[in-house]
Amino acid sequence: MMPPMMVRRIYRVGDEESAKLAYLKEHGLMPGRLVEVREVRALDGVVVVEDEDGETLALGEPLASSVYVRRASEGGARGLG
User: Fold this and answer.
1) Mean per-residue pLDDT for 29-55?
2) 3 vs 14: CA distance, rounded Å
3) What is the DSSP string of 6-21?
4) H/E element, 63
5) For residue 29, how many other CB atoms are within 10 A of its CB?
């Protein structure tokens, strides 16, 4: 897991389940968008992010692990969860 308060760019969404993809799209969590990781809860795997529009979202571990990010200034990719 990554440390909180890190700005990351979404690199890809790796889930093919339509409900998950629809949720992520509805909330603007698509490749190319920036998110700030606000909290990573080790106890339950929830990742709290804030998007470019200032919307805060709590993603459960299964959903967070399907969102791949990299540092906003670099090319290395990693999952949110």
Assistant:
1) 93
2) 21
3) EEEEEEEE----HHHH
4) helix 61-64
5) 24
